Here is the input.
Amino acid sequence: MSTRNTLIKVLAVSTAFGLATGCTPKTQLLTPGAVDQPVTMGLSGSDFAQAASDAVQSMLTSGAVDRSDGKKNIMVVSTVLNDTMQRIDTDQLVKKIRVDLLRSGKVLTTTAIGLNGAEDRMTQAYGELSQSRKVDRSTLVRQRLAAPNMSLSGKIIQRNNRVDGNQQLVEYYFQLTLTDLANGLAIWEGETPIRKLGSAKGTSW
Here is the structure.
Protein backbone atom coordinates (compact mmCIF):
# COMPACT_ATOMS: atom_id res chain seq x y z
CA MET A 1 0.00 0.00 0.00
CA SER A 2 1.40 3.39 -1.03
CA THR A 3 2.08 6.16 1.43
CA ARG A 4 -0.53 8.29 -0.35
CA ASN A 5 -3.29 5.68 0.10
CA THR A 6 -2.38 5.18 3.74
CA LEU A 7 -2.59 8.93 4.35
CA ILE A 8 -6.02 9.10 2.67
CA LYS A 9 -7.37 6.31 4.89
CA VAL A 10 -6.03 7.96 8.03
CA LEU A 11 -7.64 11.25 7.08
CA ALA A 12 -10.95 9.52 6.32
CA VAL A 13 -11.00 7.78 9.71
CA SER A 14 -10.07 10.99 11.52
CA THR A 15 -12.79 12.93 9.71
CA ALA A 16 -15.43 10.30 10.53
CA PHE A 17 -14.38 10.26 14.19
CA GLY A 18 -14.48 14.05 14.31
CA LEU A 19 -17.98 14.15 12.83
CA ALA A 20 -19.20 11.48 15.24
CA THR A 21 -17.86 13.22 18.31
CA GLY A 22 -18.93 16.61 17.00
CA CYS A 23 -22.56 15.46 16.75
CA THR A 24 -22.66 14.12 20.31
CA PRO A 25 -24.90 16.35 22.47
CA LYS A 26 -23.16 18.07 25.34
CA THR A 27 -24.25 17.35 28.89
CA GLN A 28 -26.06 20.33 30.37
CA LEU A 29 -27.01 21.29 33.91
CA LEU A 30 -30.68 22.27 33.95
CA THR A 31 -31.91 24.90 36.38
CA PRO A 32 -35.07 23.86 38.28
CA GLY A 33 -38.09 25.74 36.97
CA ALA A 34 -36.36 26.85 33.78
CA VAL A 35 -38.76 27.40 30.87
CA ASP A 36 -36.42 25.73 28.37
CA GLN A 37 -36.39 22.33 30.04
CA PRO A 38 -36.83 19.36 27.67
CA VAL A 39 -40.29 17.77 27.63
CA THR A 40 -40.60 13.99 27.67
CA MET A 41 -43.60 11.76 27.04
CA GLY A 42 -42.89 10.04 30.35
CA LEU A 43 -43.16 11.59 33.80
CA SER A 44 -40.41 14.01 34.74
CA GLY A 45 -39.38 15.81 37.89
CA SER A 46 -41.25 18.92 36.79
CA ASP A 47 -44.45 16.86 36.43
CA PHE A 48 -44.16 15.63 40.02
CA ALA A 49 -43.43 19.16 41.19
CA GLN A 50 -46.54 20.50 39.44
CA ALA A 51 -48.79 17.74 40.80
CA ALA A 52 -47.48 18.23 44.34
CA SER A 53 -47.81 22.00 44.17
CA ASP A 54 -51.39 21.77 42.87
CA ALA A 55 -52.34 19.28 45.60
CA VAL A 56 -50.88 21.31 48.47
CA GLN A 57 -52.35 24.57 47.19
CA SER A 58 -55.78 22.92 46.94
CA MET A 59 -55.51 21.50 50.48
CA LEU A 60 -54.53 24.84 51.97
CA THR A 61 -57.20 26.75 50.06
CA SER A 62 -59.94 24.30 51.02
CA GLY A 63 -59.20 24.67 54.74
CA ALA A 64 -58.95 20.89 55.14
CA VAL A 65 -55.75 21.17 57.19
CA ASP A 66 -56.83 24.15 59.31
CA ARG A 67 -57.31 23.74 63.07
CA SER A 68 -58.88 26.10 65.59
CA ASP A 69 -57.09 24.72 68.67
CA GLY A 70 -53.65 25.99 67.70
CA LYS A 71 -52.24 22.49 67.22
CA LYS A 72 -50.78 20.96 64.08
CA ASN A 73 -52.21 18.03 62.17
CA ILE A 74 -50.08 14.88 62.07
CA MET A 75 -50.24 13.09 58.74
CA VAL A 76 -49.25 9.53 57.92
CA VAL A 77 -48.61 8.45 54.34
CA SER A 78 -50.71 5.43 53.42
CA THR A 79 -50.41 3.97 49.90
CA VAL A 80 -49.86 5.88 46.66
CA LEU A 81 -50.26 3.34 43.85
CA ASN A 82 -48.41 3.49 40.55
CA ASP A 83 -50.87 2.54 37.77
CA THR A 84 -48.65 3.76 34.92
CA MET A 85 -46.49 1.96 32.37
CA GLN A 86 -43.38 3.34 34.04
CA ARG A 87 -41.28 2.20 36.94
CA ILE A 88 -41.51 5.29 39.10
CA ASP A 89 -40.99 5.92 42.78
CA THR A 90 -44.17 7.49 44.14
CA ASP A 91 -42.12 8.82 47.06
CA GLN A 92 -40.93 11.50 44.64
CA LEU A 93 -44.46 12.93 44.68
CA VAL A 94 -45.13 12.29 48.36
CA LYS A 95 -41.87 13.89 49.48
CA LYS A 96 -42.65 17.12 47.65
CA ILE A 97 -46.12 17.23 49.22
CA ARG A 98 -44.70 16.62 52.67
CA VAL A 99 -42.09 19.35 52.29
CA ASP A 100 -44.65 21.93 51.16
CA LEU A 101 -47.13 20.99 53.91
CA LEU A 102 -44.40 21.20 56.54
CA ARG A 103 -43.47 24.66 55.29
CA SER A 104 -47.09 25.73 55.63
CA GLY A 105 -46.79 25.27 59.41
CA LYS A 106 -50.10 23.39 59.58
CA VAL A 107 -49.04 19.77 59.10
CA LEU A 108 -46.38 17.44 60.49
CA THR A 109 -45.63 13.98 59.09
CA THR A 110 -44.91 10.99 61.27
CA THR A 111 -41.96 8.82 60.23
CA ALA A 112 -42.49 6.37 63.11
CA ILE A 113 -45.82 4.89 61.99
CA GLY A 114 -46.77 3.39 58.65
CA LEU A 115 -48.37 0.45 56.88
CA ASN A 116 -44.97 -1.17 56.41
CA GLY A 117 -43.54 -0.12 59.74
CA ALA A 118 -41.55 2.96 60.63
CA GLU A 119 -40.07 4.97 57.78
CA ASP A 120 -37.27 5.99 60.12
CA ARG A 121 -36.30 2.70 61.76
CA MET A 122 -34.30 4.54 64.40
CA THR A 123 -37.54 5.24 66.29
CA GLN A 124 -37.96 1.53 66.96
CA ALA A 125 -34.27 1.03 67.67
CA TYR A 126 -34.36 3.90 70.16
CA GLY A 127 -37.25 2.25 72.00
CA GLU A 128 -35.13 -0.86 72.45
CA LEU A 129 -32.16 1.00 73.96
CA SER A 130 -33.67 0.79 77.43
CA GLN A 131 -33.02 -2.97 77.33
CA SER A 132 -29.33 -2.58 76.56
CA ARG A 133 -26.78 -2.69 79.36
CA LYS A 134 -24.36 -0.65 77.25
CA VAL A 135 -26.55 2.46 77.41
CA ASP A 136 -26.61 4.91 80.28
CA ARG A 137 -30.34 4.91 81.00
CA SER A 138 -30.16 8.32 82.65
CA THR A 139 -29.50 9.78 79.20
CA LEU A 140 -32.60 8.20 77.64
CA VAL A 141 -35.60 10.36 76.86
CA ARG A 142 -38.97 8.73 77.42
CA GLN A 143 -40.38 7.87 74.04
CA ARG A 144 -44.00 8.86 73.39
CA LEU A 145 -44.89 8.57 69.72
CA ALA A 146 -47.43 11.02 68.37
CA ALA A 147 -50.34 9.30 66.65
CA PRO A 148 -51.48 10.67 63.27
CA ASN A 149 -54.93 12.16 62.83
CA MET A 150 -54.97 12.19 59.01
CA SER A 151 -53.81 9.90 56.23
CA LEU A 152 -52.71 10.63 52.66
CA SER A 153 -53.40 8.04 49.94
CA GLY A 154 -53.71 8.08 46.18
CA LYS A 155 -52.95 6.73 42.74
CA ILE A 156 -51.12 7.81 39.58
CA ILE A 157 -52.94 6.71 36.40
CA GLN A 158 -51.70 6.69 32.80
CA ARG A 159 -53.80 6.56 29.62
CA ASN A 160 -52.35 6.41 26.09
CA ASN A 161 -54.48 7.29 23.04
CA ARG A 162 -53.56 7.42 19.35
CA VAL A 163 -54.68 10.75 17.90
CA ASP A 164 -53.81 10.03 14.28
CA GLY A 165 -51.17 8.12 12.40
CA ASN A 166 -48.37 10.36 13.61
CA GLN A 167 -49.35 11.52 17.11
CA GLN A 168 -50.32 10.08 20.46
CA LEU A 169 -51.90 11.65 23.53
CA VAL A 170 -50.53 10.51 26.89
CA GLU A 171 -52.57 11.50 29.93
CA TYR A 172 -51.49 11.21 33.56
CA TYR A 173 -53.85 11.69 36.50
CA PHE A 174 -52.50 12.31 40.00
CA GLN A 175 -55.37 11.38 42.32
CA LEU A 176 -54.97 12.03 46.05
CA THR A 177 -57.21 11.71 49.10
CA LEU A 178 -56.76 13.08 52.62
CA THR A 179 -58.68 11.06 55.23
CA ASP A 180 -59.65 12.02 58.79
CA LEU A 181 -58.58 8.99 60.84
CA ALA A 182 -61.01 9.88 63.63
CA ASN A 183 -64.03 9.05 61.49
CA GLY A 184 -62.65 7.59 58.25
CA LEU A 185 -64.12 10.36 56.13
CA ALA A 186 -62.32 12.00 53.21
CA ILE A 187 -61.79 15.66 54.12
CA TRP A 188 -60.07 16.53 50.86
CA GLU A 189 -59.70 15.00 47.41
CA GLY A 190 -57.83 16.30 44.41
CA GLU A 191 -56.84 15.33 40.89
CA THR A 192 -54.13 16.91 38.75
CA PRO A 193 -54.18 15.94 35.06
CA ILE A 194 -51.02 16.23 32.96
CA ARG A 195 -51.56 15.73 29.20
CA LYS A 196 -48.79 15.35 26.62
CA LEU A 197 -49.17 15.30 22.84
CA GLY A 198 -46.23 13.94 20.88
CA SER A 199 -44.95 11.61 18.21
CA ALA A 200 -46.62 8.21 17.96
CA LYS A 201 -43.12 6.75 17.75
CA GLY A 202 -42.22 8.15 21.16
CA THR A 203 -42.32 5.98 24.27
CA SER A 204 -43.79 6.84 27.65
CA TRP A 205 -42.15 4.13 29.72
Summary: The CA atoms of residues 17 and 23 lie 10 Å apart. The chain has a mean pLDDT of 85. The longest helix spans residues 3-22.
